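Running this now, will post back.
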Amino acid sequence: MKGYIGIDPGKFGAAAMLFEDGRYVLHDWQCEKMAAKTLYRWNNEFNVCASLEKIIAVRSRTYYPNMKLANNFGFWRGLLVAYGIEFDVVPPQTWQKKVLIPGTGKTTKDRAFETAKELFPGARKHLTKISKHNGRADALLIAYNLKNERDFESKFKNRIRWSKI
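Update: finished.
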């Protein structure tokens, strides 16, 4: 079975795997060991590809939060490379522009929560507006964006093949 992994490497980051049939699995960032085990298991049990959110350093943040983001990003990227998982790095603005429902909240975080609840009604109980759940919403939506892109690419490739015949 094909699985699409979305990873938000933020402070309260998370990973989500979305299946072709719409089911999903969430993994909250707890520690490096747990993240490595989860990604290893997903990679061994399913045919997976991933999308890792690109980090953006913010000047208003102090040194430590920016370093924490960079560390988490590097850790997730290292795991993806080590496990041989095909992945891309997507800037937040790119997936947000494609996925977020306009006008559903004042901030991007609000819009991410509302969009995730709309697309994944079963996830409502896992997506409350506390900061540690923001990673869950983002990870689900990054996986959703990846699935949509891959579905489009496969349909587009099939059209090209047919047009050459």
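Residues 96 and 112 are 8 Å apart (CA to CA). More later if anyone needs it.
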